[in-house]
């Protein structure tokens, strides 16, 4: 079972200072937080639950990132430049979130501890995405699955197989074959 996010004492202190800015949201499974093509106006912090980023290609949903407790999720270019998001953000399971709007984020920048934490978490996810992207170019589907088992077992435990298959760039049938051989 997933454990809720528990911030460090420093982050907890910064949250208290800016607690009035954070909005609380409970989202059910499969709730869209941002539609592809809309402008992102919120930065989410996942307190409990699982969220995915995905886009539509030829009528298929392509999952390319997953977020869990303590992760920060948003469409950065859309948020910063008021441009359409190239992807959707959707919960996978019932999820508890905190979020900040664009104006509130400007206020948070005044607190280096909290702002740095959020930038660091977003940067960690960006690095994870880059590793996955290069694996997608370099490795076989079996190698990508093995990397996922080794480096991100949380995805295997909590994400439905059809989303894992699209994340790995294979069909659910191919994923089933790979899993049966493992």
Record the SSE blueprint.
Elements: H1 9-17, E1 23-27, E2 32-34, E3 42-48, E4 51-57, E5 60-67, E6 72-73, H2 76-81, E7 88-91, E8 95-101, H3 102-108, H4 112-138, H5 141-151, H6 153-158, H7 161-168, H8 172-181
Antiparallel strand pairs: 1-8, 2-7, 3-6, 3-8, 4-5, 4-7
What would you note in describing this structure?
- This protein is an alpha+beta fold.
- The protein has 2 domains: 9-128, Jelly Rolls, CATH 2.60.120.10; 139-182.
- The chain has helices at 9-17, 76-81, 102-108, 112-138, 141-151, 153-158, 161-168, 172-181, and strands spanning 23-27, 32-34, 42-48, 51-57, 60-67, 72-73, 88-91, 95-101.
- Strand 4 (51-57) and strand 5 (60-67) form a beta hairpin.
- The longest helix has 27 residues, at 112-138.
- The mean pLDDT is 91.
In short:
The chain has 182 residues and is α+β, with helices and mostly antiparallel strands. The chain has helices spanning 9-17, 76-81, 102-108, 112-138, 141-151, 153-158, 161-168, 172-181, and strands at 23-27, 32-34, 42-48, 51-57, 60-67, 72-73, 88-91, 95-101. Helices cover 46% and strands 24% of the residues.
